[in-house]
C-alpha cells in the first residue's frame, strides 16, 4: 500500500510548556492494535530522530518525535517533531487534533494518539512502564523488537548478532539477489513530507530494479529504475507524471538497504533510502 506520512516541524517560540499541552490528553488509542511493516519502520524513524531503521537518513539538525497518531487499522499515521535544542520551548497548539485530522483525511477512518515523545500511550493492555522506550534501546536498534514484544507488531526484526553472524551477513549481501517488494523513502527539496513508495524487485542479469511512488499534494506519480553495478555502486533515474524527474548515484549497503542521492530537473536535491531485506 502506497502511503505518504506528514512530517511537520513545530514552530518554536519562547514558551516553557509541559508536554501535555503539546500532545493533549484526548483521543489516546485503547485496545488491540496491529501495525503494518511500513508503520513499524516509520515508528523506528520517529523514536530515533530519523537515525535508525529502514528509513534512516543523515539529519541536518537533531530532532525528537513530539507525537504520532495512527489509524485504527495500523496502516496510516501523521506526526510532529521538534528540533532538540527547542524541546522545552514549544509553541502552544492543538497538534494532536491536527495530526488526527490529517491521518483521518488520508485513511478515511478514526485515528488515535499512539505515542507522546518516547512513551507509547496507546493502551493495549501491556504495562505502562514497558511502553516507555529507553534511549539506549532505541539507539541499539531495538524498537521493532519492543513493538513486537508489546503486541503491536507481528512483522520480523533482526536481533543483535555477534561478529561471526555479521561476517556471514556480509557474505550473503554480496550476492545482491533482489526479489519481492520493499519500501522506499524519498526526501525531495520542496516537499515538507517524506515520500513513501514501493520498490518492486525482480532478479535480472543486468541488475535493473523498478520503483514507483505517489507524490504529495496530488502532484502525480513517479516511475523509475536503478541499476546496480560492481562494487556496490549504481545509478538511478525517476520520471514523474507532472513532467518532473530526477537522477543520481546510489550505494548498495552490506545490510541489503540501498541509499541514493541526486538532483531533479530544477537542480533540487533528492535523496532516497530503500529498506533492507527482511
Could you explain how this protein is built, in words?
The structure is a single chain. It is built from six helices and 13 strands. It is globular, with a radius of gyration of 19 Å. The model is unreliable at 1-25 and 159-178 (pLDDT under 50). It has 278 residues and is α+β, with helices and mostly antiparallel strands. The protein has an eight-stranded antiparallel barrel. A five-stranded mixed β-sheet has the order 1-3-2-4-5, with helices on both faces. The chain has two domains: 7-149, no CATH class; 171-274, Quinohemoprotein amine dehydrogenase alpha subunit, domain 2 (Lipocalin), CATH 2.40.128.120.
Distance between the termini: 17 Å
The outline comes out as globular
Largest sheet: 8 strands, antiparallel, barrel
Q: Uncertain regions: pLDDT < 50 for 5+ in a row? A: 1-25, 159-178
* Topology order in helix (H) and strand (E) letters: EHHEEHEEHHHEEEEEEEE
Put simply, the count of helices is 6
β-strand number: 13
Q: Main sheet: which strands, in order across? A: 6-7-8-9-10-11-12-13
Amino acid at each position: 500500500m502506497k502511503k505518504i506520512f506528514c512530517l511537520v516541524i513545530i514552530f518554536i517560540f519562547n514558551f516553557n510548556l509541559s508536554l501535555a499541552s503539546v500532545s493533549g490528553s484526548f483521543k489516546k488509542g485503547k485496545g488491540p492494535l496491529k501495525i503494518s511493516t511500513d508503520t513499524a519502520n516509520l515508528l523506528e524513524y520517529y523514536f530515533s530522530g530519523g537515525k535508525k531503521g529502514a528509513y534512516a537518513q543523515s539529519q541536518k539538525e537533531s530532532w525528537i518525535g513530539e507525537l504520532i497518531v495512527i489509524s485504527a487499522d495500523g496502516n496510516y499515521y501523521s506526526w510532529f517533531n521538534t528540533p532538540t535544542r527547542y524541546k522545552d520551548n514549544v509553541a502552544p497548539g492543538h497538534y494532536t487534533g491536527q495530526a488526527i485530522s490529517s491521518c483521518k483525511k488520508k485513511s478515511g477512518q478514526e485515528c488515535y494518539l499512539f505515542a507522546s515523545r518516547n512513551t507509547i500511550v496507546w493502551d493495549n493492555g501491556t504495562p505502562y512502564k514497558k511502553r516507555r522506550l529507553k534511549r539506549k534501546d532505541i539507539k541499539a536498534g531495538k524498537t521493532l523488537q519492543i513493538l513486537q514484544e508489546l503486541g503491536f507488531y507481528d512483522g520480523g526484526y533482526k536481533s543483535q548478532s555477534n561478529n561471526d553472524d555479521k561476517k556471514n551477513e556480509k557474505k550473503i549481501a554480496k550476492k545482491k539477489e533482489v526479489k519481492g517488494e520493499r519500501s522506499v523513502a524519498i526526501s525531495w527539496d520542496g516537499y515538507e513530507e517524506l515520500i513513501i513508495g514501493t520498490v518492486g524487485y525482480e532478479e535480472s542479469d543486468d541488475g535493473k530494479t523498478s520503483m514507483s511512488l505517489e507524490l504529495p499534494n496530488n502532484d502525480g506519480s513517479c516511475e523509475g529504475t536503478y541499476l546496480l553495478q560492481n562494487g556496490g555502486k549504481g545509478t538511478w533515474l525517476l520520471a514523474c507524471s507532472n513532467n518532473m524527474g530526477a537522477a543520481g548515484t546510489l550505494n548498495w549497503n552490506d545490510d541489503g538497504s540501498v541509499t541514493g542521492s541526486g538532483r531533479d530537473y530544477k537542480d533540487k536535491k533528492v535523496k532516497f533510502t530503500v529498506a533492507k531485506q527482511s
